[in-house]
Amino acid sequence: MDADVVVVGAGPTGLMLAIELRLAGVRPLVLERHPHRRDTPKAGGLGGQILELLRYRGLLERFQVACPGPVPAPRFPFGGVHLDFTHLADPPMHALPLPQQLLERLLDERAAELGVEIRRGNEVTGVSQDDAAVTVDVRGPDGPYRVSARHLVGCDGARSRVRDRAGIPFPGVTYPEVNRLAQVTLPDTVTVLDNGDLDVPGFGTVHAGFTRTDRGLFGLGSSPGARSVSLYTIEDESVEYDDDVPMTLNELQDSVHRVLGAHLPLAGSTRLSRFTFKARQAERYRAGRIMVAGDAAHLFPATGVALNAGLLDAVNLAWKLAADVHGWAPPGLLDTYHAERHLAGARTMLHTRAQVALRRGHDAAAEALREVFSELLLDEQPLRRMGALVAGTDIRYPMPGSGLHPLAGTFAPDLTLHTDRGVTGVAELLHPARPVLLDLAGRPDLRETAREWERRVDVHTAKTDDRPADVLLIRPDAHIAWAAAVDEPAETAAPALREALSGWFGTP
Ligand SMILES: Cc1cc2nc3c(=O)[nH]c(=O)nc-3n(C[C@H](O)[C@H](O)[C@H](O)COP(=O)(O)OP(=O)(O)OC[C@H]3O[C@@H](n4cnc5c(N)ncnc54)[C@H](O)[C@@H]3O)c2cc1C
C-alpha cells in the first residue's frame, strides 16, 4: 500500500482530516489538483462547535495569534433576521474572524509539522475498490500513475468526483439566488455625495443600505466621501457557478447593471466573491472503503455553517479510520461516521432550509413571518436554543445501550480539573487526540476495568467541583462515549464500562 488513507482535496476538510489521521498514528496521503494553495476568497471566519474542538487540540491558541478572537458572536445572520446575543453574558455562539485562506495556510503548516505528505498538482481521475483496498488513478505533473490505500476519503468539495465514482447520490435542490460581494474603488466619474450615497446616471440616488428593484437587491456600504465602498448584489439566475472559479470585476459590474438597470463604473477591487445556495446532502457518507466529508457530503443554503460541519466531519472520521488501520476497530465503528455526521448534517440542513423560507419572500406575508420570528428571538430561551442549533452544539449522537447517562453522546464539557500535578482541564487531556477515561470520584474499580485497554485509552484521575458523573469515557473527537452516574455501584458500572470500552475501542 502507498498510504493508509488517501485524502482527496487539500481544502479545510482534507487538511483537518490529514492532521487528525497523523495524530492517530496513520499515514495519510493528500492529493490536491491545484498546484498551489488557492487565493480565491471564501469564508470570512469560523464559528460554532469547531472552535471548542480546535481549543481541545491546542490549535485555537495558534489561530488566535494569527487573528484576534474567538469572540462571542454578538449577532449572527439568520435568514434575513439576526440572532442578537449582545445582551447575553455567555452567548451560545462563538466566532473567529479567520479568513479561509489564512485558515488553510495554518492547517497546511500544522500538517507539514506532523509530516503529512501533500501532493499538489495531482488530480484524482478515477477510484475503484475491492475487499482489501482502494485503487486511485492520479494525473500528476509527470503523467498518470496509480496509488493504493486501505481507505479513501473524498474531501473534494461540492462537485466531488469521489462521491460520483463511489455511486453516492447527492439529492437536493439548487436555489437560483446568486450573491456577489465586493470591496471596490469608484472612479472619479462617479459622484459620491457627502453622506456616502451615490448618484448613478440612469438610476438616480442610490442610498447606503439595501435597494430592492424588480430584478434583485443592491447593497451599498459606504462612508461619507470615501471612494472605497462595499457592494452587494443578489439576483436569481439560471446559471450554475463553480465556487472555485473566481468572480471578476466585469462580472460584478454586469450584475450591478442588471439589478439597477444603469451602469456603475468600477475602477478596481480588493475583495471579490460570489456564492450560491444549494441544499444537498449525500445519501450515504460511506460506500465500503470510500467516504465523503465536508462540502462533498453536504451543501447548506445559508452562510456561516459549512466549515463548522466539514471540519467536525473530519475529526469524527479520523480516529475511526485509524482504529481500522491499526486493526482494533470494533464491528460497525466506521458506520457510526455516517450515523453521527449525517444526523448532524441533517440538523444543519433543517435550520438553513428554514433560513431560505425566512429570507426569500418579499411580500407582506413574508415580512410578517420575519417579524414574528424576530419577536420570538427577543426571549432568552428561544434565542439560546437557536444559537445552539446554529453552532451545532445541541447534537447528541445516538449511543448504543440502554439506561444511558444523559451526558452520553454529548460534547464533553471543559471541566476544571484538580490533579496531583496542578489544575488542568478536559481540553488539555484531549490535545493528543486519544481516548480518555476520566475518573472524577476516585473509582479504582473502574480504573481497573479500563486497565486492559491502557495502550489505547489514557486514564486520568482528577477532582472537579459539582462532578456531573463519577467517570467519563471520552472519545478522541471529544464526545462522551459512556459515563458512570454519581455513586453508581460497581456491579452495574463495571460491566457497562467494559461493554462501552469494547464497543468503541475494540477487544483489549
Ligand atoms: C464566497 C464564499 C463564502 C463562504 N463563506 C463561508 C462562511 O462564511 N462560513 C463557512 O463556514 N463557509 C463559507 N463558505 C463555504 C466554505 O468555503 C466551504 O464550505 C469550504 O471550502 C469547504 O471545504 P472543503 O475542504 O470541504 O471543500 P473545498 O474547500 O471545496 O476543497 C476541496 C478541494 O478538493 C480539491 N479537488 C477537487 N477535486 C479534486 C480531484 N479530483 N483531485 C484532487 N483534488 C481535488 C479542490 O481543488 C479543493 O482544493 C463560503 C464559500 C464561498 C464560495
TrEMBL record:
It comes from the Bacteria. Residues 2-349 form the FAD-binding domain. SUPFAM superfamilies: FAD/NAD(P)-binding domain. It comes from Streptosporangium sandarakinum. GO terms for molecular function: FAD binding; oxidoreductase activity, acting on paired donors, with incorporation or reduction of molecular oxygen, NAD(P)H as one donor, and incorporation of one atom of oxygen. Keywords: FAD, Flavoprotein. Its cofactor is FAD. It holds the Pfam family Rng_hyd_C. This is 2-polyprenyl-6-methoxyphenol hydroxylase-like FAD-dependent oxidoreductase.
